[in-house]
Amino acid sequence: xxxxxxxxxxxxxxxxxxxxxxxxxxxxxxxxxxxxxxxxxxxxxxxxxxxxxxxxxxxxxxxxxxxxxxxxxxxxxxxxxxxxxxxxxxxxxxxxxxxxxxxxxxxxxxxxxxxxxxxxxxxxxxxxxxxxxxxxxxxxxxxxxxxxxxxxxxxxxxxxxxxxxxxxxxxxxxxxxxxxxxxxxxxxxxxxxxxxx
Length: 197
Hints:
The chain is an alpha+beta fold. It folds into two domains: 3-121, Alpha-Beta Complex (Aspartate Aminotransferase, domain 1), CATH 3.90.1150.200; 131-190, no CATH class. The chain is 45% helix and 15% strand. Strand 3 and strand 4 form a beta hairpin.
């Protein structure tokens, strides 16, 4: 039954892995035993239940992780979930640096996977911050006043694209860097494109 859930592109992903090969293999085994479907999304193995994203396996320089898409809704009774950055609203990671850690946490990982499935079955949704709750950087506001067409184009973008730009433009500490970023992406906004388009 597990093999019928495998996807050749996922097999290729795991087959090409070098840094976290053994860890990925152990995570895959545990997650597959929870009867989730697997496919590649965003370049990583993604595990779904009834076409709803439950978890993603990915590797970084210092650790590999299982990302729970609605991790902020999980109880996290063991206090092991990590919010990647302060701007991540829904996702939470369970991080590992070796196979021993994964083996030691297997029972907890399974429990979290089953809880994440129950969150989807219950139809629970994360209450995301509205874009109006994000402070538009002063430099962007000034550019909007200089170029009303830029403001119009920005407001026509999807909320996610607006949020990505606001966060990207707000991130630098120096005003000149914020201005430089706005200038760099001005045409992209006018063209109706997002930060990553």
